[in-house]
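Checked the freezer inventory, then went back to the computational side. Two predictions to log before the end of the day. The first one is the construct we discussed on Monday; recording sequence and tokens without edits.
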Amino acid sequence: MPIVRNSLLLRKGYAGLTFFGNILAPSDDEARGFERKGSHMKNHEMIHLRQAQSTHDSWLLFYLLYGWYTLTALPQNLKMRNAAYRLNPFELEAYAHEHDLDYLKHNEATEWRQYARMSPRERRLKYGHSR
């Protein structure tokens, strides 16, 4: 997956973003972090790539679902900081496995579907306090 420097699309505090099969990094330093062998940051973004493939290989569907899950979790922001992002089913799976560099060798990255079946409140109660 190519790594492209682009600070315009990234909010402050985010190291990277998967954008239509590319990793966007806000700076050259962050881009080099993704290029390091064994990078958990790159593994996190690669999980998103596989997740997009699991949504009928459609980036559009991936982003529509991502947006929907973010919007439905917005009320949880009152109970937990950045809940709309952190409780997104795609992010829950990616954060849970970003340090397991063999995760994608043995998994299809469809665990997000289990999280998606839960309400945002259920996700917050079960996973929100662990980070």
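The second is the one RB wanted added to the comparison set:
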Amino acid sequence: MVQSLRRPEEILAYRPLRQVLAAKPSALWTVGPRDSALSAMRLMADKNIGLLVVMENKALAGVLSERDCVRRLVLAGKSAEATPVADIMVRDVVKADIGSTFADCLKLMHSHRVRHLPVMEDGVVIGVISIRDLLSEAVAHHARVIGELEKERLTMVTSTA
């Protein structure tokens, strides 16, 4: 096998979350618990994102996803303009620590049935990782491995000819 795949960080499951986050934009989109659900949904639509971090006094208060808006707002017949984010957000947030690995995040998402994880460092939210981010990382990793294996195969075929 190619030497670069022998270091732990080059094995997908052990890839540090910090490395995965480095491959995506660093913007953290937040709302406050007293903001209207409508303003939160507009922000998600404008930024083309599926989850907002709800912050109160610089601390994580909860998260709000598109799914929360549909289930707890639309289907409940509530007014988006009159409903504060606090009424529909998730307060018991499943989070990942920056010291987590790719596999740790995948396990958390699977076991808690969530698609996004706020990423914490020293008690502060520094980003959000999504299942789509992990999938992109896996696709890029496998493309690189396949490319290296093809090079290795070509080297073996041409050296025996």
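For RB: The beta strands are 30-31, 51-56, 59-65, 96-97, 116-121, 124-130. The first helix runs from residue 17 to 22. Let me know if you want it refolded.
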